[in-house]
Structures are given as structure tokens and as C-alpha cells.
Specification:
Elements lengths: L27 H15 L3 E7 L1 H4 L8 E8 L5 H17 L5 E8 H4 L8 H8 E6 L13 H8 L2 H14 L3 H27 L6 H12 L3 H14 L5 H22 L16
Parallel strand pairs: 2-3
Antiparallel strand pairs: 1-2, 1-4
Helix pairs in contact: 1-3, 6-8, 7-8, 7-11, 8-9, 8-10, 8-11, 9-10
């Protein structure tokens, strides 16, 4: 059922989505294991940890959905820290069949609270992440409305991503690699399409189908609404077809990048820098 408040609280700010109480029974053991092992592996280095994505939203599908984690370290992460996170991801993925993969982002506390990240990773932590362990940085971050500034700083970097996407598509050799890449690129494109119109719609959702529908409310008389709906479907059921990937990098992606620059501007164009985080 669609949210009548469009993801906003009574004051018009984006409400934090997800909670530990929404985690469905099949995923509780893997979340409990992740929490315990994070403490074992990172110990005093860990400032806090979060869940994000479908698991804390209560929409995860056993055997189909990922477990997504974000770690906040007291100091800037090292390569050893990232290697520890990858080993933890692999161990959890191997042990728990109810998740289709485990992915962990690792950041330093100072960076997440920096001015440069206020409307990107700061917003992500404050609105889209569910506290799992330790300190909650949302206490130090502003509240957010669905503005053009937020749209630009979260998704206004699509043009800069396209060359790397093309390289990744060319390097993908197996069906599994192409399906994983299609899923990731499709999700990013749908979110970009949604945030293109987000300030006009004046709300927030993380549901890809609803994102595509909202985009269609403003671009329903163009071919792009259909392209975005198709991408939303592929994000859930990727085919891994090379032709589909080509449409993302050569057609839908460039069009969205151009519209974004026209409507919201380019990420970092007003002095805000970006660290290149993949979510």
C-alpha cells in the first residue's frame, strides 16, 4: 500500500525508514550473527554499524535479497579494515542461505560528518540506515527535505559514472556477472529517475516500482517512462542480456544524466566534493 505521507514526517522532513522491529523472522539469525561478529572483528575500532536496504524495511525475500551493512570506524578505514569486512561478508553469505549476498560499506566517522557528505552519505545514514550497533550519527546531522539540493548531491554524478559502467559491462564475461551488474545499474538508474522528479512529487520512497511509477507521473508521455519501468523490473529479475546493459549505458543513462544537469545541476558543482561511494 502506498504511503499517504509519501515518506515524510508531520513536519515535512524525510522520515527514517526501516527498523530492527521490521526484520522478518528468516533474516533475524543472520542479523544477530553479523552484529556479534562485527564486535569480534572490529572491536574498539567500531564507532557504529547500520543495516540498510530491504532487510530492515521488512521487504526482503529469502534467498533473493542481500544483507546490506554500513560500518563507521573511529578512524579512516584502511585496506586491512576493508579486507576484514570482505571476509566477514563472505563468511555470512556462505553460512546463511536466506541471503543472496552480503555487502558492507566502511567509512570513517569524520568523513560521514563532514560538510562534503552532508547531503550524500550524511543523508543516507540519517534517513536510510537503521542503527544496529554503537553510536547513531543521525544525532549530529540535519533533517532533510526532498529538495533539488538533495537530488543533486545524491544522484547528480551519473554522467561521471557512465564511462566506468561501460568498462564494467565490457569486462563482464559470465551470465552471473552480467545479471549482478544489470541489477546494480538498473537500481541506480531508477533511483536517479525518481530523484529527478522527487522535489516536484515532494516525498521519498525506496520502493523501486513506486519510484518508477512516480517518474511516470511526470514523464508518462515519453518513451523514458517505459524504459524506467523496465529497469525497475530488471532490478528484481535481471536477465543478464548484453543488449539490456547497452541500453543503460548508451541510451537511458545518458538521457537521465543530461536531464539531471538541466534540472538539478551536476554533483559538486557548488563546491561540495564527493568521495565516489557505491550504494
Amino acid at each position: 500500500m502506498a504511503d499517504p505521507n509519501r515518506g515524510l514526517d508531520p513536519q515535512g522532513y524525510i522520515a527514517r525508514e526501516g527498523s530492527l522491529g521490521r526484520i522478518e523472522e528468516p533474516f533475524r539469525p543472520v542479523v544477530a550473527a553479523a552484529r556479534d561478529r562485527l564486535l569480534d572483528v572490529f572491536g574498539a575500532r567500531l564507532s557504529g554499524a547500520y543495516l540498510y536496504g530491504s532487510v530492515p524495511r521488512g521487504t526482503a525475500r529469502p534467498g533473493r535479497s542481500d544483507l546490506d551493512l554500513l560500518l563507521v570506524l573511529r578512524a579512516a578505514p584502511t585496506e586491512a579494515d576493508r579486507a576484514d569486512a570482505r571476509m566477514l561478508d563472505a563468511a555470512l553469505d556462505k553460512e546463511f542461505a536466506q541471503v543472496a549476498g552480503v555487502g558492507t560499506l566502511v567509512f570513517g566517522r569524520q568523513r560521514l560528518l563532514s560538510e562534503a557528505e552532508t547531503y550524500d552519505m550524511g543523508w543516507f545514514v540519517a534517513c536510510l540506515c537503521t542503527p544496529l550497533l554503537g553510536e547513531d550519527l543521525a544525532e549530529y546531522l540535519p533533517r532533510y527535505r526532498p529538495t533539488s539540493l538533495l537530488a543533486r548531491e545524491t544522484n547528480g554524478d551519473l554522467a561521471a559514472r557512465l564511462p566506468r559502467w561501460r568498462e564494467q559491462c565490457a569486462a563482464a564475461r559470465t551470465d552471473d556477472e552480467r545479471r549482478a551488474l544489470q541489477r546494480r545499474l538498473a537500481r541506480h538508474l531508477v533511483r536517479t529517475a525518481f530523484t529527478l522528479v522527487m522535489p516536484r512529487w515532494n516525498g521519498w520512497t525506496s520502493d523501486l516500482q513506486e519510484m518508477a511509477a512516480v517518474f511516470g507521473e511526470y514523464h508518462g508521455d515519453t518513451e523514458w517512462a517505459g524504459r524506467v519501468r523496465e529497469a525497475a523490473g530488471a532490478a528484481h529479475e535481471p536477465t543478464g542480456e548484453a543488449a539490456a546493459l547497452s541500453t543503460y549505458t548508451e541510451e537511458l543513462g545518458p538521457w537521465l544524466a543530461g536531464e539531471y544537469a538541466r534540472v538539478h545541476g551536476i554533483k559538486g558543482a557548488e563546491g561540495v566534493t564527493w568521495g565516489g561511494s557505491e550504494r
